[in-house]
UniProtKB/TrEMBL annotation, chain A:
Protein name (database record): Carbohydrate ABC transporter permease
Residues annotated as domain ABC transmembrane type-1: 68-259
PROSITE patterns, alphabetized: ABC_TM1
Protein's membrane topology: Multi-pass membrane protein
Any Gene Ontology biological process: transmembrane transport
Subcellular locations according to the entry: Cell membrane
Keyword vocabulary terms for this entry: Cell membrane, Membrane, Transmembrane, Transmembrane helix, Transport
Similarity section: Belongs to the binding-protein-dependent transport system permease family.
Residues passing through the membrane, by range: 12-32, 72-93, 105-125, 137-159, 180-202, 237-258
Entry GO CC: plasma membrane
UniProtKB/TrEMBL annotation, chain B:
Residue ranges occupied by any ABC transmembrane type-1 domain in the UniProt entry: 65-286
Location within or outside the cell: Cell membrane
Membrane-spanning parts: 7-30, 69-96, 108-128, 164-183, 265-287
Stated name of the protein: Sugar ABC transporter permease
Keywords: Cell membrane, Membrane, Transmembrane, Transmembrane helix, Transport
Recorded topology in the membrane: Multi-pass membrane protein
Gene Ontology terms: cellular component: plasma membrane
Organism field: Cohnella nanjingensis
Amino acid sequence: MTNRKGAPRVVIVGLLSVFLFFTLFPMYFMLITSFKTNFQLSINYFGLPTDPQFGFMQDAFSKVWIYMKNTIFISGLSVIGVLIVSSLTAYVFARFRFPLKQTLFALLLAFLMIPGILMLVPQFVLVTNMGLINRPWAAILPYIAGGQLVVIFVFRTFFEEIPKELIESIRMDGGNELVIFFRLVLPLAIPIVLSMGLVNILSTWNDFIWPLLVLSDQSQTTLTVGLYRFMDPQQKIYGSIFSGMTIASIPLMALFAFTMKYFVQGMTSGAVKA
Amino acid sequence: MTKKVHYVYIYACLFPSFILIGLFMLYPALEAFRMSFLDWNMTNYLHPESVGFDNYIEVFKDAIFRNSFLILLVFMIWHIIILQGASLLGAYFIYLLGNTRLAGFYKVAFTIPMVLPGMVTTMFWLFFYEPNNGMLNTVLSMIGLEHWQHIWLGDNQVTAMGSLMMKGFPWISGLGFLIYLAGFQNIDESLREAATVDGASPWKIFWAIDLKMVAPQIRLTTILVLIGGTQQFSDQLIMTKGGPGYDTMVPGLYMYNNAFTYGKLGVGAAIGVILFVLTMALTYLNLRSTRERG
């Protein structure tokens, strides 16, 4: 335990608490407003609801459910795809020498740096010509293509750090490449696989522009686009809007509540490697 | 012979990755350059015409486009100095608490909003600035400052830009925060102890030791902001549509409007190429300055 002398501890804790209050306040407000009618909101803006209205949650859930289902499907398949494709590629890059290795890896690196905005318009034309508009694959395939880059990079570094002696000892016992991969490498990689998977889920779950373009159909679109359309400009029923926002937040909250440590690791390792 | 079989397996493993990269990254990237020289819109969708540099000339002649870079510059400077500064400060305070339970609590608590869907956060801020029932105007009227009320996102450039810039206050929660915190927590304690023994003030230690030690992290987040920032336009699209007028128009949104609202695909591709060149130039300058400093 270290005690760093600096500004008085009280001041630091005080400031952090004020910052934290403002950081978390939107979540508190979202939750309480989910249970208020417009009138209740106008007379009791910041307080807990005195007569909580649970109907908004029900109403919002029936509207949001379809978007949530689409998003779970798209994010789920994307992350599974990214993890499978990247672990294969990263393992091959980490373990073997083969012709064109440097060229192919340079291609990966190049696309890590090339901004996605360059490709936005042509990707849209491509997906349109492939007849994928308003089908989940219009999002899933590009998500795997783009999402794998940083994951391959992080996995490759991880695989290279596995001691050669461990691999050799399995080979001595007669294990082939498949045994090495599934019995040794994959179990060791579980934490990093989990980390990168969580970060990937967050990014596809949050994406807005791409689904807005390629999944515009009401029945096919994702949570972000669905919520965006939720803001009915004519007559705003705040209880309903905030209920929708609350419900949309629950799946990730639930997922990350148990995996926060891996998520934090994934965020930092992905960024440092990029 | 066995070697050849070996390579077949290797390329088979690489195949899924590279077929996806080829189709969804490499091909569109090359297409972007080709498309940027075409007059291609909804009326001649099947028969685009080659027009040389006309698309580039058209956008650079447009004052709205030129101005959008100034607006972007303001957002980026704000982002790099204020937003990154806030997360640096937050991370530093937590670091100063040492290896305590309290520090661990703050770290987790500041991380929680990161897992809210981005759209939920944006919708909260949209509500915050809403003219009639929005939180900002409501608070102003509660404390008797009705005359300070505005249609924040629509009155004029100052209120609209200001509102977008204040979104996310106090800006601690985010990737930068996690990166800085990891950086601070890797600092060698003996350095600080030696400085304390020598009688250095906390202020001096911050500038001379702690800040220097996280310089690589600061450079990293700056690159990330530069690359991400030139492409970012969803806040503008959702909250102001680039308005009032074109007062919050950034290049990315200008591209989006041209390509997907007006259907000018060639012009959109040209703007994409311009933004690509700009991003690459910024990345290159950043890498070069890093190398010079050692």
